[in-house]
């Protein structure tokens, strides 16, 4: 989620209309809410429009206002409050680097430096070729895998300068990089070898069940459960 300053675009925007495919999605979204409550769909409709257009323009706001039957100012109130909405054009890829305390302590500045070295951009800037926009985010909720960043809907975690540079270089060259931990660990499991739960706790060797009559051990009057 970008923390870059937001500006309301001017009136001279390109007209916007939901694509044929997205019009069906608009109907599906609005149908989720009670009659007369279409304004509850403002958030998902703005997200849908941004995925189609790349950003939330004045034309997008006016279209969403018409669809939901509210004044445009009510849509602006939503679009300017949530940092997930981009109120100005961005690059093809939106790189959002978490710079909050846990990520900062773990080296988020090195991640920003890697982006600067590969793309020639700093926070709040878009590369000259329009490939990426670099933004900072305030906590993306993956602190145990800090430092990390978000690109689109994907998280890239356990970064340092070299891993971030490798990720950005692959993006620049058009190569795909899987999301998740870039250090090879599984989810948020400890790095390196296991230090606990090194044996299966459901077995006698694991120490959980040692009484033969225990139902979990397969004994007892009722047999295995």
Q: What can be said about this structure in brief?
A:
The chain is an alpha/beta fold. Helix content is 32%, strand content 10%. A six-stranded mixed beta sheet has the order 2-3-1-4-5-6, covered by helices on one side.
Provide an overview of this structure.
- The chain is α/β, with parallel strands linked by helices and 225 residues long.
- Strand 4 (149-151) and strand 5 (154-157) form a beta hairpin.
- The chain is globular, with a radius of gyration of 24 Å.
- It folds into 2 domains: 1-88, Orthogonal Bundle (Arc Repressor Mutant, subunit A), CATH 1.10.10.1590; 93-181, Glutaredoxin, CATH 3.40.30.10.
- It has helices at 20-30, 42-53, 58-68, 72-79, 101-105, 108-119, 161-172, and strands at residues 93-98, 125-126, 132-137, 149-151, 154-157, 180-181.
List the helices and strands and how they pair.
Blueprint: H1 20-30, H2 42-53, H3 58-68, H4 72-79, E1 93-98, H5 101-105, H6 108-119, E2 125-126, E3 132-137, E4 149-151, E5 154-157, H7 161-172, E6 180-181
Parallel strand pairs: 1-3, 5-6
Antiparallel strand pairs: 1-4, 2-3, 4-5
Please name the defining characteristics of this protein:
six-stranded mixed beta sheet; 10% strand; alpha/beta; single chain; disordered N terminus; 225 residues; globular; Arc Repressor Mutant, subunit A; Glutaredoxin; 2 domains
**Record field, number of beta strands:** 6
Poorly predicted regions are: 1-7
Instruction: Give the helix level as a range of percent.
Output: 25-40%
CATH superfamily of the largest domain: Glutaredoxin
What is the CATH architecture assignment of the largest domain? 3-Layer(aba) Sandwich
Using only C-alpha atoms, the radius of gyration works out to 24 Å
Strand neighbour order, sheet with most strands: 2-3-1-4-5-6
Order of helices and strands: HHHHEHHEEEEHE
Distance between the termini: 48 Å
The largest pleated sheet is described as:
6 strands, mixed
- Please tally the helical runs, counting DSSP H or I stretches of 4 or more residues: 7
Mean pLDDT: 87
The top level CATH class name of the largest domain: Alpha Beta
Shape: globular
Helix/strand/pairing category: alpha/beta
Residue fraction in strands: 5-15%
Q: The CATH topology of the largest domain, please?
A: Glutaredoxin
